Amino acid sequence: MTISQDLQHTRLGRLFGAGGPVFQPLGDYGDGMELTRLAPQTGTAFLLRAGQRLTVIDPTGEQVSDFFAVMDDDRDEWFSSGRTIDYANSTAVTTGSVLYSNRSRRMATVVEDTCGHHDILLTPCSQQTFDLLYPEFHGAYHPSCFENLATNMAAFGVDPDRISTTLNIFMNVWNERGGELHIDPPTSRAGDRFVLQAEADLVVGLTACSAEKSNNGVCKPIDYRIDD
Question: What is the pLDDT of residues 5-32, one digit of tens each?
Answer without folding.
Answer: 333 333 333 344 444 566 665 545 666 6
